[in-house]
Specification:
Blueprint lengths: L6 H5 L7 H14 L10 H15 L2 H10 L17 H9 L16 E7 L1 H6 L1 E12 L15 E2 L8 E8 L2 E8 L8 E2 L12 E12 L8 E4 L15 E7 L6 E3 L2 E9 H6 L1 E7 L2 E7 L8 E4 L15 E8 L6 H14 L11 H10 L1
Parallel strand pairs: 1-9, 11-15
Antiparallel strand pairs: 2-7, 3-6, 4-5, 8-9, 10-11, 12-13, 14-15
Helix pairs in contact: 2-3
């Protein structure tokens, strides 16, 4: 008994399926198991199996023979892909593309990454940073041609400047033209007989460059800024890549950022909390006045409008959120103790139990602070 799988099972179709359904099933599986898409080790074996099944079932006479006698009726004459040099040739024949052809013509240079560290204030208000980067630049000696001075690249004699070599292949499907990358010029259509001594024919040399990067207001830790055209130089006349600057922001001594708001914790004394006061509060723009109303409780938060972080994509700024904490005095003088004792007598000693909070209230407090 043959160890081969059933062709209908391989393609996932029923024995009564029509030509169009068969074709759709084949194309779906062929694309699914193409080596450029499917990196599993068995992808090449699967695609050969799929092609073999389709080659039989798409031929009316072979399909009738297979339906009547199975694999034995085909005498082992199917599934022979020896006319193809590799799996890319099979796909070139069916779909008109190859999995391994090199890119021809101008190529964009590679992107680069750089890092920059900002102070808290620089991230908020923006800054210009000067960076030194190492990149592959166009060779100044040959101006990117790769050829020594007084010479120039010549047309590749093997491919005639097309960058591709065409070979006629014969298979069970007939004759096919197989187009592959020219091995002599690597698909560029030109060869350099006298390479530039500076870049050794590579068209680029490693250089260092100082650039100024504009950091917009409102960036945060981890923000990425793109500087167009400051990556590696392109080759064969292609454009340069881009430079991506990744930002790290230092922490402030007492200000904290949360999205576009600035948060500040501030301590006031008992008298300020009880009687109210007007105090000076530090902000990113300098000190501003803040009114503490009488009876302020510890943990109460006040907002100072427009003193937060600028928005990146539209006008305006966030707010500064000031949370106050009432400090219990220590190391009192005799006069202070006497005053507090008088206050204590007037307030009384009644203890008021706090209302019991449910689990939902405790959870909300834990999440929202």
């Amino acid at each position: 008994m043959s160890s081969k799988r059933d062709y209908y099972e391989i393609l996932g179709v029923g024995r009564e399926c029509g030509t169009e359904d068969l074709r759709k099933a084949y194309r779906r599986l062929a694309m699914q198991y193409h080596p450029d898409v499917n990196k599993n080790g068995d992808a090449e074996d699967r695609i050969k199996e799929i092609n073999e099944a389709y080659e039989v079932l798409s031929d009316e006479q072979k399909r009738q023979t297979y339906d009547r006698y199975g694999h034995a009726g085909l005498n082992g004459g199917t599934g022979d892909f020896s006319g193809f040099s590799d799996i890319s040739d099979i796909f070139e024949s069916f779909f008109g593309f190859s999995g391994g052809a090199a890119q021809r013509g101008p190529r964009q240079g590679e992107d680069l990454r750089a890092n920059a560290t900002l102070s808290f204030e620089e991230a908020i208000f923006g800054v210009e940073k000067e960076l030194e980067i190492e990149r592959m630049g166009t060779c100044p000696t040959c101006n990117g041609s790769g050829a020594e001075a007084g010479s120039k690249p010549t047309r590749c004699p093997e491919c005639g400047g097309s960058g591709q070599v065409r070979r006629v292949r014969s298979s069970l499907f007939g004759s096919f033209v197989n187009v592959t990358t020219c091995p002599r010029c690597s698909g560029q259509g030109e060869i350099v007989a006298n390479p530039c001594k500076e870049c050794h024919g590579q068209q680029r040399v490693r250089t260092k460059k100082r650039i100024t990067v504009t950091i917009p207001p409102g960036v945060d830790d981890g923000t990425r800024v793109r500087v167009s055209g400051e990556g590696n130089a392109g080759i064969f006349g292609g454009p340069a890549g881009h430079l991506y600057v990744f930002l790290t922001v230092k922490q402030h001594a007492y200000l904290r950022r949360k999205e576009n708001d600035i948060h500040l914790n501030l301590t006031i004394n008992v008298a300020q909390a009880a009687l109210g006061d007007e105090i000076k509060v530090p902000t990113l723009d300098g000190e501003v006045p803040l009114t503490i109303p009488a009876g302020t409780q510890t943990g109460q938060t006040f907002s100072i409008k427009g003193k937060g972080v600028p928005f990146l994509r539209h006008d305006g700024r966030g707010d500064e959120k000031v949370t106050v904490f009432v400090s219990t005095p220590t190391n009192l003088s005799a006069a202070q103790k006497e005053l507090l004792q008088e206050l204590s007598k007037s307030l009384g000693k009644q203890v008021v139990p706090q209302e019991e909070r449910g689990w939902f209230d405790r959870l909300r407090e834990a999440l929202l602070g």
